C-alpha cells in the first residue's frame, strides 16, 4: 500500500500521483480514482468518497455487472491460491478465509457457486464488519434476494469496503462512523468500590471460540484500553468471562471452595459494528447483574 497522503496533498498532486495513492481503493478499477481526480478539489474525505461511489452507481447495468465480477469470492479459489489484490488479501485474512477446514471450504464453495449462478457476479461483503459465522449467515440470507436488491446491496457493501480503504490511505481522514468500541467496567458492590485487578477475558463465539483479549482491571474497575476498538466491531456472538472467584478470594470476601460464583460468563451479540458497546458488571460473591451501558 502506498504511503498515506493528506487530503490537501491529494487535491494538489498530479493525476498520476492521485491514482497511485487511491487507484486500488476500488477492486481492479483504478478508473474510479482517475475520474475522481478530475473533480478536485474535495472539501473533505466524505465528499471524495461520495464522488467515487457516484461514478460507480452511474454505471449501466451491464458495466456494473462487469465491475462487480472483478471482485474475488469470499473464501474462494483466488483466496486459496493467494492471487487476490493486497487489500482483499488483508481483509479476507482477518477471518483466515484462505485457511478454512475442508467442511467450511466446501460450504463456501457451494454458496459461492449458488450465488454466482443466481446473480452472475460474486458475493461481496465488507468482511471487516463480520465474524466468520456472520459472513456465512449473510451469504445464506442474501441468496433469497432478487437481482435488483442484490445489486444494490453489493454496491452498499463496496461503499463500506472502500470507505475503510480510503481511511487507511488518507492521513487525518476525518471520516466518522468507521470504527466501534467495546468496553467494560466492574463494580464490587460487596465492598462498594470498583473491582481492581479482576481478570476479564473476551472470546469470539459462533465458530468455535477464539480468545480476543485477556486483561486485568485498573483501580477504576476498567481495562487499560477498550477490549476492541480502532476498526468496525465484527457482527457476531461474543462472551466475556469475569473471574470473580479469584478476585473475591484474593480480597478476603469469600472462603468457600468452590466459590458460589467462580467464572461468570456473559454472552452477548454485536449487531452494530460502528457503535459503542459497554458491558458493565456489578457483582458480589453471591450475585451479579449486567446490561448494555453507554
Can you walk through the features of this model?
- Helix content is 39%, strand content 18%.
- The chain is of the alpha/beta class.
- It has 2 domains: 163 residues, UraD-like (Orthogonal Bundle); 110 residues, Sandwich (Immunoglobulin-like), CATH 2.60.40.
- A 4-stranded mixed beta sheet has the order 5-4-12-13, with no helix packed on it.
- A hairpin with a 5-residue loop joins strand 6 and strand 7.
- Helix 3 crosses helix 4.
- The two termini are 36 Å apart.
- The model has no long low-confidence stretch (mean pLDDT 95).
**Proportion of residues in β-strands:** 15-25%
The appropriate CATH architecture of the largest domain is Orthogonal Bundle
Return the CATH topology of the largest domain: UraD-like
In angstroms, what is the radius of gyration? 23 Å
- What's the CATH C level of the largest domain? Mainly Alpha
What oligomeric arrangement do these chains adopt? single chain
E-strand count: 13
Strand arrangement within the widest β-sheet reads 5-4-12-13
Give the helix level as a range of percent: 25-40%
Essential attributes:
about 290 residues; alpha/beta; 4-stranded mixed beta sheet; UraD-like; Immunoglobulin-like; 11 helices; about 20% strand; single chain
What is the secondary structure topology, with strand pairs?
Blueprint: E1 5-6, H1 7-12, H2 15-22, H3 30-37, H4 45-57, H5 61-69, H6 77-81, H7 86-93, H8 102-119, H9 132-142, H10 147-169, E2 170-171, E3 181-183, E4 186-188, E5 193-194, E6 199-204, E7 210-216, E8 228-229, E9 236-243, H11 244-250, E10 263-270, E11 276-278, E12 281-283, E13 288-290
Parallel strand pairs: 1-2, 3-11, 4-12
Antiparallel strand pairs: 3-8, 4-5, 6-7, 6-9, 9-10, 12-13
Helix pairs in contact: 2-3, 3-4, 4-10
Amino acid at each position: 500500500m502506498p504511503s498515506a497522503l493528506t487530503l490537501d496533498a491529494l487535491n494538489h498532486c498530479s493525476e498520476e500521483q492521485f491514482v497511485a495513492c487511491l487507484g486500488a481503493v476500488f477492486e481492479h478499477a483504478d478508473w474510479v480514482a482517475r475520474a475522481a481526480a478530475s473533480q478536485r478539489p474535495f472539501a473533505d474525505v466524505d465528499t471524495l468518497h461520495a464522488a467515487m461511489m457516484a461514478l460507480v452507481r452511474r454505471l449501466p447495468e451491464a458495466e456494473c455487472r462487469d465491475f462487480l465480477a472483478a471482485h474475488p469470492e469470499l473464501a474462494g479459489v483466488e483466496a486459496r491460491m493467494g492471487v487476490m489484490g493486497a487489500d482483499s488479501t488483508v481483509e479476507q485474512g482477518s477471518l483466515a478465509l484462505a485457511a478454512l477446514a475442508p467442511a467450511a471450504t466446501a460450504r463456501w464453495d457451494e454458496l459461492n457457486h449458488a450465488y454466482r449462478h443466481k446473480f452472475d457476479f460474486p458475493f461481496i461483503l465488507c468482511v471487516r464488519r463480520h465474524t466468520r459465522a456472520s459472513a456465512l449467515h449473510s451469504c445464506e440470507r442474501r441468496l433469497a434476494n432478487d437481482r435488483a436488491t442484490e445489486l444494490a446491496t453489493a454496491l452498499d457493501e463496496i461503499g463500506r469496503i472502500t470507505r475503510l480503504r480510503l481511511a487507511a490511505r488518507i492521513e487525518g481522514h476525518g471520516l466518522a462512523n468507521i470504527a466501534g468500541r467495546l468496553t467494560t467496567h466492574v463494580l464490587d458492590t460487596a465492598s462498594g468500590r470498583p473491582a481492581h485487578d479482576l481478570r476479564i477475558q473476551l472470546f469470539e463465539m459462533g465458530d468455535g471460540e477464539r480468545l480476543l483479549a485477556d486483561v486485568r482491571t485498573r483501580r477504576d474497575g476498567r481495562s487499560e484500553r477498550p477490549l476492541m476498538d480502532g476498526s468496525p466491531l465484527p457482527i457476531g456472538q461474543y462472551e466475556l468471562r469475569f473471574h470473580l472467584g479469584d478476585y473475591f478470594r484474593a480480597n478476603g470476601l469469600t472462603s468457600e471452595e468452590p466459590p458460589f460464583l467462580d467464572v461468570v460468563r456473559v454472552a452477548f451479540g454485536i449487531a452494530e459494528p460502528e457503535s459503542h458497546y459497554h458491558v458493565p458488571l456489578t457483582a458480589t460473591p453471591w450475585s451479579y447483574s449486567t446490561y448494555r451501558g453507554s
